[in-house]
Structure formats: structure tokens, C-alpha cells
């Protein structure tokens, strides 16, 4: 006879817990999961996770995103997505990581284009503009043109 | 039953890839055999017209990310097929650009001569721009590309995207522009079709724009430019032979803008009306007032440096011209009111020189 009562109690507790889960708590849990996805085996999951974190501007994901950008062995599209996300966060602490990646030998043009965009989120920081300036001489035509345009417009449109 | 057969065939042809996730996993191929296998599997998905479009778009993206030149043939076939959607062709152009290989450059250049939507056209130009390092120093390739770009621009009803100018500035040398114009002129004279005349106009515009953009350098290093100026003006003069009013007007207006430079004025005057201003079928005698007006304006700008220009102004415009607007152009081109009227003075000298 005690069994149905226990079940009812568990259901009641569960429902109660659900009812008290706030939207911000749900979002926090999703962010935690997205941060975990940044180390997924498949690169497309890591890329999508980075993009989603950038859209959410989830400040708690900064360190994990910086790790993706700084990892030279990471796929270029994942690094580019992480750089875009860091740009959206525009945290001052991320600036050295972004600048460091621009100076990396052999970085993919796709990553450099994202880095230019990300560095433009720091228009008042001379070191960010200097790093963009270095890319004006890049061997890739689109990268050098993007750097030139962003500098001329001071990162405007 | 039909559905079952179609599903079985689809599976057989696409190497069991039936989901976006399965396709995207192929982009993580690392070793050469893995990449080769992935290119084959993904290429089959892309090539199969029965596959739904979102899956084919993903397949094109994955081929670009695999960065294997083996993917160039299937991507090129999609890009060059006008039956395919603009979106799929755009993805194919993007992916070809990512390959950065001579095998991917070829279909991209070829696509400039195929019917292209705006988005696909822009992606094609971006794809070619990614190959810029492969183009440097290869004049034949540059010529082929420039002619294709001229054709592309000539087919559009609106200005080409910004990447067109970027690519043009990097890849087009004056010698390449000259060859392009020479070829376009021959084609226009031989066929006179709409496409040939559009290409002639574009080639003329790009050569003369390049010359105009070099004004400061011409002024600073005039001697070094002599040969190039002569060749350019000869090429511009040959445009008249095609008999296309739009291209003719463009040449006259461009020479007018350049004609005030001492290094160009004399040759420009000779190209327009002859060294003595007596070339048959010169624009100052054209039946259209608009053509005469632009010619008068251009000659007035080069009058200080060109005997031919002065003669044509004197004997064609001042003596025969009856349209007030054309005569007004000369007035507007004369020196400011307070300054000496250079044009009148020059013409007076000419009158004295030729008077019996």
C-alpha cells in the first residue's frame, strides 16, 4: 500500500521541481551543455556549439572559446566560429588570444577573416587595429582587402 | 514498391549517406585515404539530382572543407550547369574557391562565361580571388581571366560586385588590358553581336580607366609611359572601327579627360581627329550633335598640346558648327573670365598661320 503513495510523492516532487525551474536556469543548463559540446568529437558539433554560444553571448563560455581559437590543431572552421563568438562577447581578456592567432604562421584565410571581424569589436584598442593592419599584407587577396577596408573605415561598415 | 526501389537506388548511389550529420562527419577525414573516400562519398551525394537540395548544399560545403582537388570535377560540373539552382551553384563556387588549385580555378573562370545569378556570380569572383596567388606572373592565365571577367561584366545590367574591382586591380596589368581590348575589338568588328559589343565597351572602359587611374604616375614618370600610352591610344583608336556609338563616345570622353596631360594630349588629339585634324570620319563631323558636343569638349581639353585638336576646333567646330550647345562647350572650356582666353588666343594664332 505504501508503493503508490511513494510514487505519487516522487511525481509530486518532480513536478514541483519542474515548476520551479526558471527560464534562466534552463538557459544556463543549455549553455553548460554547449560549452561541453565545444570538445565534441565531431567538428561540426564543435562549430555549431561555438556559433550558438556567440549568439547567446554567453560570458561563461569565454575561456572554452579562447581554447578553441588558440588550438592550432583545431579545424579552421571551428576556430573561425569560436573567433566570431569571442568577437560577439568582446571581453577584454580575449584580446591577446585573438591577436596571437592573427600572427600564427599558416593560419587559414577563413580564420583570419573571422579574426578581423572579431578584432573590430575592439575599435578603441590600438593593439587590435595594429593586428588588423598586419593582415593588410596577407598573401590572400580577400584577407588583405578585408583588413584594408576595416582599417580605412575604422571598423565601420 | 517504387519508393522502396528509389530508396534502395538512392542508398546505393550515395554511399549510404542519407543525413546531414553523416555528411558533415566526412569533413573530419584526416588521412589521405580517408579524404579520398570522403570526397567520393560526398561527391556522389552532390552529383545525384534525386537527393534533396539541403543535403546537396551540405555536400558542396563538405567538399570545400575537405580541400582535395579531386572534388573539383564534381563541383565544377554543378557550377557550370545552368539547370542547377543559384544556391547550389553558389555553394559549389565557394567550395571550388576553397580548393585553391589549378583544377578548381579552371571551372571558376569558365563559369564567368555561363549564365549566372547575382549570388553565384559573386561567389565565383570570390573563388577566383582565393586563387590570386596561382595567377601571379601567368600572363596567359591572366588574359583568359580578364577576358572572362570583361564578358561577365558586359552581361550584367548592374555594376559588378566590389570583389570584381578588387580582382581586376590585382590581376589586370596594362598589357593584359591592351590584349583584351585588341581581342574584343576584333570580335566586335567580325560579329557585331550584342555580347561582342558589350565586351568591347567593357574592355574599352577598363583600359582607359586604368590609364586615367595612372595620371599621377604618368606625370611623374612620363618617359617610362611613352610606349604604353602610344599602344593604349592606338588600341582606343581601333575601337572607332567597330562603329559602336556607345564605345566611340566612351573613347572620346576618356581621351578628353586624359587630354589635358602634356604626355597624352598630342597623341590623344591624333587618335581622335588625326595629327592635322583632318582625319576622315572624325567625330567633329558626326551627324549626331551629342557626339560632336563631347568631341568639342574633349578637343578643347587637349588643345594646348595637340595641333590636330586645334585645327579640328577651328575648321570643324568654330567654322561649321551650328548647334549652340556645342559652341557653348567651347565657351565653358575657355579660361575663367578674369584670365586670358587661351583658346581664343590659340585659335587666332592658328588663323594667322593658315591664312594665305
Would you mind describing this structure in some detail?
The complex is a heterodimer of chains A (about 160) and B (about 350). Chain A is an all-alpha fold and about 160 residues long. Chain A is built from nine helices and no strands. Chain A has helices spanning about 1-20, 25-35, 45-55, 60-70, 75-90, 95-100, 110-120, 125-135, 140-150. The relative contact order of chain A is 0.09. The model of chain A has no long low-confidence stretch (mean pLDDT about 90). Chain B is mainly alpha-helical and about 350 residues long. In chain B, about 75% of the residues lie in helices and about 0% in strands. Chain B has 21 helices and no strands. Chain B is elongated. The relative contact order of chain B is 0.05. Residues about 1-15 of chain B have low confidence and may be disordered. At the A-B interface, α9 of A face α2 and α11 of B.
Topology:
The complex is a heterodimer of chains A (157) and B (356).
Chain A: H1 2-20, H2 23-37, H3 43-56, H4 62-70, H5 76-89, H6 95-102, H7 109-119, H8 126-134, H9 141-152
Helix pairs in contact in A: 2-3, 3-5, 4-5, 5-7, 6-7, 7-9, 8-9
Chain B: H1 2-13, H2 20-25, H3 32-47, H4 53-66, H5 72-79, H6 86-99, H7 102-111, H8 118-129, H9 132-135, H10 139-155, H11 162-171, H12 174-191, H13 194-213, H14 215-220, H15 222-239, H16 245-258, H17 262-273, H18 289-302, H19 307-320, H20 324-333, H21 342-354
N-to-C series of helices and strands of chain B:
HHHHHHHHHHHHHHHHHHHHH
The chain-level structural class of chain A is mainly alpha
Strand content of chain B: under 5%
The geometry of chain B reads as elongated
Helix content of chain A: over 70%
Low-confidence stretches of chain B: 1-14
Helical stretch count of chain B? 21
Mean of the pLDDT scores of chain B? 87
Distance between the termini of chain A: 72 Å
Q: What fraction, in percent, of the residue positions of chain B are helical? A: over 70%
DSSP strand tally of chain B = 0
Largest sheet composition of chain A: none
